[in-house]
Design brief:
- The protein is mostly helical.
- It folds into two domains: 87 residues, DNA polymerase, domain 1 (Orthogonal Bundle), CATH 1.10.150.130; 173 residues, Orthogonal Bundle (hpI Integrase, Chain A).
- It is 49% helix and 8% strand.
- It is built from twelve helices and five strands.
- It has a three-stranded antiparallel sheet with strand order 1-2-3, with no helix packed on it. It has a two-stranded antiparallel ribbon with strand order 4-5.
- It is globular, with a radius of gyration of 22 Å.
């Protein structure tokens, strides 16, 4: 019996997961490889060369008006495809000139603007708490949403960020003024989790192969998301009824609404809170490199 070879995109996903790249990187690389193949008339990448890659990258800049960083991400996806999936020499790809990213000064809030922003967040629920935590801890949005209960140490006023940028773990501060709101929030999350368990649900996805090594860990309180989603889903592979963490767009929407209401005329995003955190620490005389 002949077993059909896996599709190219399936091979791509396997190679990415074998190297423990993040799910966001996986989806981005798959998207770029799919777009490249379609751009080249659905020809197999083995039949294509540097001219085809150059035309694709040029089209992204000229026709799609993508940024330099987006163009470089597309090139990185194609380098990964040829080097790690097709096992082909990539010297000709490495020779391609990468788009130069313009140097930009980050947007930073003043302390007064931060107060105005937070005043418009009151009553905003969990999303508002995430926004305040971004400024108080300097975390990136995905890092805050990916927090597990066990990562928050109230005794040490410390948060452990797992698998941050570059897949590195680190510690950051838990602001004292957010301890009480966060404890109240976690009490509500725990009640929700206990109800989920009572109805046969209460699972969360675990990193790596932990689910195989510890089959019941996905239901333990310590592994639950600090900011769970409002809806459950059924995992296709295990049949478990799980919750994912809150979606980033929920927080981004709350932030944009508060920014608009506070009439702060800056092109800011959730990431602006991270820049503001670092800037205000420097102004206060702290060494943010340690």
């Amino acid at each position: 019996m002949t077993v059909a070879a896996p599709s190219l995109l399936t091979q791509l996903r396997v190679a990415i997961r074998t190297r423990h790249y993040s799910p966001r990187t996986e989806e981005a690389y798959v998207q770029w490889v799919r777009r490249f193949i379609r751009f080249c008339g659905t020809r197999h990448p083995r039949e294509l060369g540097s001219g085809d890659v150059t035309r694709f990258l040029s089209s992204l800049a000229v026709d799609a008006h993508v940024s330099a960083s987006t163009q470089n991400q597309a090139l990185a996806a194609l380098v990964f495809l040829y080097r790690d999936v097709l096992n082909m020499p990539v010297g000709w790809l490495n020779a391609l000139v990468r788009a130069k990213r313009p140097a930009r000064v980050p947007v930073v809030f003043t302390r007064d603007e931060v107060r105005k922003l937070f005043a418009r967040l009151r009553g905003g629920g969990a999303a508002a708490l995430v926004v305040e935590l971004l400024y108080g801890s300097g975390m990136r949005l995905q890092e805050a949403l990916g927090l597990r209960v066990k990562d928050v140490d109230f005794g040490a006023n410390q948060i452990t960020v797992r698998g941050g940028k570059g897949d590195r773990d680190r510690h950051t501060m838990l602001p004292e003024r957010l301890q009480a709101p966060l404890l109240r929030h976690l009490a509500e999350v725990r009640r929700q989790h206990e109800h989920d368990v009572a109805v046969g649900a209460g699972w969360v996805a675990l990193p790596g192969a932990l689910g195989l090594k510890y089959p019941n860990a996905g239901r333990e309180w310590g592994w639950q998301w600090v900011f769970p989603a409002g809806r459950m889903y059924e995992d296709a592979e295990t049949g478990q009824r799980r919750r994912h963490h809150m979606h980033e767009t929920v927080v981004q929407r709350a932030f944009k609404e508060a920014l608009r209401a506070s009439r702060i005329a800056k092109a800011a995003s959730c990431h602006t809170l991270r820049h503001s955190f670092a800037t205000h620490l420097l102004e206060a005389g702290y060494d943010i490199r340690t």
